[in-house]
Amino acid sequence: MAGRVLITGASTGMGRRSALYLSERGYEVFAASRTPKRLEDIANARLHPVGMDLRERQSVDRAVADIGRVDVLVNNAGYGLVGAVEHLDDDEMKAQFEINLFGLLRVTRAVIPSMRERGGGVIVNISSFLGKIGLPLLTLYNASKYAVEGVTDSLRYELAPFHIRVHSILPGFFDTEFARSNLVCNRTTFDESSPYRPFAKKLAPRIVEEINGGNDAMQIAKLIEYLIETPDAPARMTAGEKSKKFIPMRRELSDEDFERRVKAYYEL
After folding, report:
1. 141 is catalytic
2. Cα–Cα distance measured from residue 234 to residue 44, given in angstroms and rounded to the nearest whole number
3. pTM
4. pLDDT tens digits for 181-227?
């Protein structure tokens, strides 16, 4: 099924790779970013950079109106806030949800009417295996991705009567720009005087190392294509080593047993 695909957060990482791949596969791709100039080097007859700020409803609505028909929405934009809850201020917490959840909802809300009127469409939410598994210092990121999973579950019921399919992909750690560009650290947590510094000093480098040594983002691009083209595809799919390891384990074990496994794995 060729069609018109809107991908958010497309200037780097999974979004960029997916935009380029889908355009090569015959889709007309609208690659959205706050910095669309960063996509000009891969723009072509089927790949169109689009300016969109997920934090602003007018920006989202204007971009979607300019695009016109959207057959597939890939909600990819997001970043990770790293810090102890005790140290996070309101602005940091709100900003995490503003992009990872409310931005996703703004774009989804904008494309639903035309999909509903046409009687079909596909929405793919790029979530995270951390939408099912908690890790310390990533509490707000975890919470935002848990929320994305809830949105996915609910929208599958809400939009099914209109033949709009909703799916999520739960990546593990992938070698993208995420660790270099999309992790935001709370400085107080990492300060010499912070009671959480020993914890942060031990865990944060481990997470960054796992991200930088992670899987190839092309896996995500191909999963998106699979979800688009497979009408009976599952509600959610895992991607990458960490996701395929921890998500099944999470289903099989009790909360207490799973927590013990995670503590042992990360030496917490």
Report:
1. yes
2. 32
3. 0.94
4. 567 889 999 999 999 988 888 888 888 787 777 678 899 999 999 99
Q: How many whole angstroms separate alpha carbon 263 and alpha carbon 41?
A: 43
Dihedrals phi, psi of 29, to nearest 5 degrees: -110, 130
Catalytic residue among 128, 145, 168, 194: 145
Residue ranges and CATH numbers for the domains of the chain are 4-240 (3.40.50.720)
Report the chain's terminal Cα–Cα distance, integer Å: 46
Active-site residue 145, yes or no? yes
* pLDDT value at 179 more than 60: no
The fraction of the chain above a pLDDT of 90, given in percent, is: 81
Question: Per-residue pLDDT tens for 16-52?
Answer: 999 999 999 999 999 999 999 999 999 999 999 999 9
* Active site annotation includes 127: yes
Distance separating alpha carbons of residues 80 and 88, to the nearest angstrom: 13
Dist. CA 181–CA 82, nearest whole Å: 13
Does residue 19 contact residue 10 with C-beta atoms inside 8 Å? Answer: yes
CB 227 within 8 Å of CB 122: yes
Catalytic residue among 18, 23, 33, 127: 127
Cα–Cα dist 222/26, whole Å: 13
Please give the structure tokens belonging to residue 24: 């090569």
